[in-house]
Amino acid sequence: MGKIYIVGIGPGCHEDMTLRADKALRESDVIAGYTVYVDLVRDYYSDKEFISTPMMGEVNRCRMALEEAQKGKTVSMVCSGDAGVYGMAGLIYKLSVEYKPMDIQVIPGITSALSGGALAGAPLTHDFAVVSLSDLLTPWEKIECRLREASKADFTLCLYNPSSKKRHDYLAKACGICMEYKSEETVCAIAKNIGREGEAYQVMTLKELAVTPVDMFTTVFIGNSQSRVIDGKMVTPRGYMEKEHGKK
Amino acid sequence: MGKIYIVGIGPGCHEDMTLRADKALRESDVIAGYTVYVDLVRDYYSDKEFISTPMMGEVNRCRMALEEAQKGKTVSMVCSGDAGVYGMAGLIYKLSVEYKPMDIQVIPGITSALSGGALAGAPLTHDFAVVSLSDLLTPWEKIECRLREASKADFTLCLYNPSSKKRHDYLAKACGICMEYKSEETVCAIAKNIGREGEAYQVMTLKELAVTPVDMFTTVFIGNSQSRVIDGKMVTPRGYMEKEHGKK
Q1: Taking CA B149 as the corner, what is the angle to CA A157 and CA B162, rounded to the nearest 5 degrees?
Q2: Which of B54, B149, B210, B234 makes an SS bond possible with B121, Cβ 3.0 to 4.6 Å?
Q3: Residue B87 three-state SS
């Protein structure tokens, strides 16, 4: 039976990978993935076969990995961040029905909400919603609806894919929607190039965020009504009754 | 200057910890945390000093850790899952202003949304919201509002703390709210004892979830309108236009 691991490798630095992910890669015959992610791990597992495909070839990439597994090889499909969160796990499951029997194991990894959050402080200590601003596979109206309802309910928001060359004004539009329900003074943060060269974070208000340039390597945090700045970090308390509770 | 790591140790199994987390624990003089979490790591770092406190002593636990760091020791505060998501990072930042100067480093970990998701399939491949059903620090009305708005916007939901002795009917109430906006046939899953003895998952409909007994070691997934069952796993597609896109 073919065996495929779908491995979340975390933000990019080898240290942010789990021990389980490292073990799966070491056990594998083949490491497959988007070129940039394969290059992030190549030096650590240099005795492996590598299959890498460019950005938009997701379906082909998954098929190539499944075909290798069907031949009896152990294959790891690497995803940046987590294997599931905007990752390849869903697509592998969907395509795998054509390559049965297949042993599929999903190995979770540190998604940018967590790694970016750790860099910027502790923005996600309470309920939060994760929204991708990419409208490649999702109608923009759906994205707007999610930003609106999440803002109404005072969720902390974590935004993935806040910008690209074609979508340079999407973050400003998203901030505009949030400001219909959240104060323009809401504490926000951005985390850039997490776990890679040029890693940086910045804490600001929602109003400032709306005019801050970001790129596709940026993760954005928009606080809830309780989020605050402590020593330059963005911190969301654990609840709405923390103070009283802490006094006990 | 005092040094404190706030370390997400993942779901419980040592392999689900990141290499960075493992390194921080090895570097530390003291490992502090809730007794159950400290016990999960104790055997791997047996040469350390340990400070463990029972469940409700969060503030004291953080103060004890900060005091040790102030004495010049390197301290790791361990959290199950991630250090930020419903973790101790926020509280450490808040209290740390009384223990300056203090070098604080948050080391992210695999939170249950990711580890439970990997176990149940790929439920979080698209936008999702994480909500805790614990009303200890949050008014129940706020929790209801979040479930309602997130359901309206067709988010996949991941529920933490779905039940406890005092709150045995909370999941049923939450499902009732979701069913006002989501189909009762919505694909759902539960993941239990992730990374520990008795690990299990189960895929079911929202209507079935409403009458399924869960405990505090269960993580719950409620799909969006596109979530489906593939080979007994819960899978949410990457978007709403995936089929067309995949055909290109």
Answers
A1: 85
A2: B234
A3: coil
pLDDT digits over B15-74, tens only?
999 999 999 999 999 999 999 999 999 999 999 999 988 766 889 999 999 999 999 999
Q: CB-based contact (8 Å) between B195 and chain A?
A: no
pTM as predicted: 0.96
The pLDDT tens digits for B204-243 are 999 999 999 999 899 999 999 999 999 999 999 998 876 5
A166 Cβ contact partners less than 8 Å away, ≥ 6 residues apart: none
Write out the DSSP string of A188-225. Answer: EEEEESTTSTT-EEEEEEHHHHTT----TTEEEEE--T
Please indicate whether, in this complex, the C-beta atoms of A106 and B86 are within 8 angstroms of each other. Answer: no
> How many Å lie between the alpha carbon of B168 and the closest alpha carbon of chain A?
20
Contacts of A124 (CB under 8 A, 6+ apart): A113, A114, A117, A156, A158, A221, A236, B82, B84, B85, B130
Decide if B29 touches A, using CB distance below 8 A: no
Q: In which residue are the tokens 């809401």 written?
A: A186
Are B116 and B145 in contact, with CB atoms under 8 Å apart? Answer: no
Dist CA B191 CA A71 (whole Å)? 32
Do residues A159 and A241 lie in contact, with contact meaning Cβ atoms separated by under 8 Å?
Answer: no
The residue ranges of DSSP E strands in A12-70, in sequence order, are: 30-34, 49-53
Count CB neighbours of A116 within 10 A.
Answer: 30
Angstrom distance (rounded) from CA A202 to CA A71: 48
ipTM exceeding 0.85? yes
